Amino acid sequence: MVVASLLTLYSVIIIYFLLFSPAEKRYNIAADLQGSFLSQNLFEILKFQDPENDEIYFEQSVAFNKRGEYKKGFELLDQAVDLNPKVHLGYRGYMKLRFLRDFKGALKDFTRLDSLTPNFVDAPWGEDINFLRGESYFGLKDYKKAKAYFEKSIETQGTDWVDIQAYVYAGICEYKMNKPAEAIVFYQKAIEQSKYTVEAHLGLANIYLEKKDIKNAEIHADLAQKYYSYKRNDGYNEYLNEVYKKDIELLKKRFK
Amino acid sequence: MKNKTNLFLFTSLVVSFMLTGWLFYLSGKRVGDLSVNEQQDGDFQVCNEDRIFQYYNLDTDYKGGKKAIKQEILSRLESLDFNNPGLITARFIVNCNGDTGRFRYKSTDLDLKEIKVNSENIKKIKSAVLLLQHWNSPEENRVFDSYYVLNFKIRNNKILDIF
C-alpha cells in the first residue's frame, strides 16, 4: 500500500509539473533543454494551454533553425510573427539574412518592421537594423545601397555604439565600386576604433599592394596576421565578409 | 480488499513506469538526430552513437572554413540544373576521425515550404561533399562526433552559394 501510494505520488508530481506548474518555469526549463524532445513536448503543452503566446513559438523554433530544419523552424517563427510582428519580424529577418542568406526575404521583413515602428531605429537580435539592411544589400551585390545603409548605421548609432564592421563593410563597398581612396578612409576609421580590426587591415593591405605601396601593404598584412585571432566570426554561420588565414597568406605571396 | 490493493499497486506501477520510460525516451531524443540507415550510409561509423554533438558545441569546421568548402566544390556543382529557387540543406556527421557520412537532405523554397529535388543532383552534391578531406583533425575535434549543416543556395536554377 505504501509503495503504491509513493508510486502514485511520483506520477502525480510528474504530471503536475508537466501540466500545471507555473508556465514561466516550464518555459525556462524547455528553453534550457533546447533541442531535446522533452523540451519540444513541454513547448507543445505550453502552446496548447496558451496558444496566443508568441514567445513559445519563437523559442521552440530556435533548435530547428540551428540544426538546419528550416521548414519546421520557420513555420513556428511565422506563427510568432503573426501573433506579435513588432517583436519577431526583426529576428525573422535576421535569421533569413544570416542562416538562409535570403537577402530579399530579410529586407522585406526589415521594411515591414520599420513600417510598424515609425520614428524608432530597431535592433533585430541586438544588431542595428540599418547595419543588417546594409549587409543584405551587400549580399545582393548592390554595393551602392549597401554603403548607404552602413553609413546610415554609422550616423544613427554614433561612434560609441556603431558596429566597427559597418566601417569595414562600407570600405569593401567602396572598393567594389572602384573607389579605393574612399575605401581606405573607411578602413582607417575602423582601425581608429579598434586596432584589432583584422578585416580592415586586410582590406588596406590589398589596396596598398595594388597601388604598389609595398611598405604599407606589408605593415597591414602583418597586422592582419598578428591580430588574426580577433577576426569576426560566429559559431553558427560564416559572415559575408569573413576573412581567413589563407586570405592573408595569399596576399603575402603577392609581395614576392 | 487485497485485490483492490493489488490493483492499486499494479496500476501505480504501470503508470509510473510508463511515465519514467516516456521521459527517458524524450530526454534522449533530439531535434535533428539522424538515425542509421545501413543501405544509405554504407560502412560509415561513428565513435559514440549516444554522444553526437552539434557543430556549434564543438566548433566543428572545415580547414579554412566555409570559404574553403565553397572553393573546393562549388565549381563541380555549378553545371547542375534545378527547378526552384531555395535551399538544399545537407545535414551529416563529421565523425571522430574527421570522416563524413550519414547524409540527409531537406530542401525548401523561398517560402520555406518543402520541395522535391532531383535525386541525381543530390547524389552529385553528396559526392562533392565527400571529396572534402580536411575536417577538423581528431586532435582538434577532441575525438567526438558531431553533426554539421551545409546549405546550397539555389537561384536562377543554379547553385549560387554554399555556406
TrEMBL record, chain A:
Matching entries from InterPro entries are given as:
TPR-like_helical_dom_sf, TPR_rpt, Ycf3
Which residues form the TPR repeats?
54-87, 127-160
Q: Where is the signal peptide?
A: none
User: Is Transmembrane included in the keywords of this UniProt record?
Assistant: yes
Q: Which domain of life is it from?
A: Bacteria
Where are its TM segments located? 6-23
Keyword Phosphoprotein attached: no
Pfam families this protein is in? TPR_6, TPR_8
Q: Which keywords describe this protein according to UniProt?
A: Membrane, Repeat, TPR repeat, Transmembrane, Transmembrane helix
User: What PANTHER family does its record include?
Assistant: TETRATRICOPEPTIDE REPEAT PROTEIN 6 (PTHR44858), UDP-N-ACETYLGLUCOSAMINE--PEPTIDE N-ACETYLGLUCOSAMINYLTRANSFERASE SPINDLY-RELATED (PTHR44858:SF1)
| Annotated protein name in UniProt | Tetratricopeptide repeat-containing protein
TrEMBL record, chain B:
Give the organism, scientific name.
Salegentibacter agarivorans
Q: What keyword terms does UniProt attach to this protein?
A: Membrane, Transmembrane, Transmembrane helix
Q: What is this protein called?
A: TonB protein C-terminal
Is the keyword Transmembrane helix assigned to this protein? Answer: yes
Q: Which residues cross the membrane?
A: 7-25
